[in-house]
Amino acid sequence: MSQEIKLVNSHIEEYLDYYCGLSAPRFAVMIKGQWGAGKTWFIEQYCEKLKKRQSYKYLYVSLFGMTKFSDIEYAFFQQLHPVLSSQGMEITGKIVKGLLKASIKFDLDHDRKDHISLDVKIPEIPNYLKNVDERILIFDDLERCKIELRDIFGYINQFVEHHNLKVIIIANESDLQSKYTDYKIMKEKLIGQTFDILIDFEGTFHRFLSETQNNQIEKILFQDIEHLKNIYAKLGYNNLRTLKKIILDFKRIFEELPNKAKNRIDILNDILTFLTVFSIEIKRGVIHSNDVIKLIREYRSHRARLSLKETLGKSIDSSKSDKIEAKLDNEELKNTIQKNYNLYNSFELDKVFPSESWWEKFFDQGSIDSDELNTSISSKYFPQDKDTPNWRRLYYFTRLSDIDFEDLLKKVELEYKEKKFLDIGEIKHVFGIFLTLSEKGLYCKNKSDILSDAKTYINHLNSCNKISALPYSIIDDRFADNYDNLLFYGFDFREFKELSSYTVH
After folding, report:
1. Which residues touch 132 (CB under 8 Å, ≥6 apart)?
2. What is the pLDDT of residues 126-178, one digit of tens each?
3. Buried/exposed code over 420-429 (b: 16+ C-beta within 10 A; e: otherwise)
4. Which sign does the torsion angle of CA 139, 144, 146, 148 carry?
5. Among the listed residues 89, 90, 73, the one whose alpha carbon sits nearest the alpha carbon of residue 125
6. In angstroms, what CA-CA distances link 22 with 15, 165, 282?
7. Which of the 8 DSSP states describes residue 493?
8. Spatial CB neighbours of 222, under 8 Å, sequence gap ≥ 6
9. At 160, phi and psi to the nearest 5?
10. What does pTM read for this prediction?
11. Whether 278 contacts 363, CB under 8 Å
């Protein structure tokens, strides 16, 4: 067992060692925790430890989906007699039936009265089961058993009371408490010690990493463990099973990256961030796998509404407000976005990379669009590539040297002046860049002049019928804040909103 696990849950392991060494404890031990917290993995590791001890043997059964006691008995029988229970052995059913003798009577309260009499039999220990009195019975997934809890507790109690066996029960207790109002009374009869499994993020993370069989990915993710822990913490999510899927998905995406991107920490960190956030939100049911686009777009719409309120004040024209609210047609998702808006802002979902459509294809169809992935990487992280348009290279001006910035600004300004941009989305990107650079004192023109030039540009293209015929949603939606998977600069400026209205006239 790893050192990490010992540090986190060593107290449980130490107690189980003590418990297993008792001659006749006459009570069971429960290990509880939320689904995906690592309960099953912990007990599996403990069982591996038991295997190394000559004096301890165990029988393990998952109660998930079991509807009758014979299912449990047969699971035990398979472990005790793997040859007899193998496929094709016709005597199995007869032998199992021959093991059933005793009837269960179980006092669930403390008044010494029999409140239940079950017409169910349990295996009486025959002579040929060697060292059975030294066995430990482990019942996993108690909350997912379809047998009534009162009955299954009575069944297990027979092993504890009449056969003096040690019993360990693994359960998500919160599910049981919500389902059974008398859970506490039932539990007190059988369970003598309860432990809450502690989340061991690092130990589980290292274990999953070792299973990738890729030293490069293992090294990369090892360096990003604190970032992943922070995402889990922000989202209030503790399911470690999802972590394994995230690691496997990251490995798959990593293998599709161009070589120039595989050593860029910023690229890998962005991919891992959005992969983790979307994976968790899908897994816990906030969105479906085909709702990624809707989540991002409605998030942006909500942001636009807040921005409009801040810009124009509370006296927003009702028609403007209705246009924004109309996009939020999913009431449940709308409420989720409103509740988690600040949280989503912290992950900068408006700058989702490569794009919301790329992630939706990934989660819903299981496909990786390598072309879009490579194009997005080149545009955002390698704007110096010769095939990247000048305006896209200027978009990442914060990454440019002073010399490159001045050179690109002159080139884009000239292209804009000569009206070489025919796509309304590109025009608005350049317009937004100019507004932002002016705000920062990096461009000689003021915002009013930039707006005037942009209107003149639009008028000219309209008069010459030169505006690209390609569909562009911004023409129909003045509140869209992005184009070609890039958020507009200056989206919140009054001048930008005015131009957005101007383009739909």
Report:
1. 125
2. 443 334 456 789 999 999 999 999 999 999 998 888 888 899 999 999 899 88
3. ebeebbbbbb
4. positive
5. 73
6. 11, 10, 45
7. S
8. 206, 209
9. -75, -50
10. 0.61
11. yes
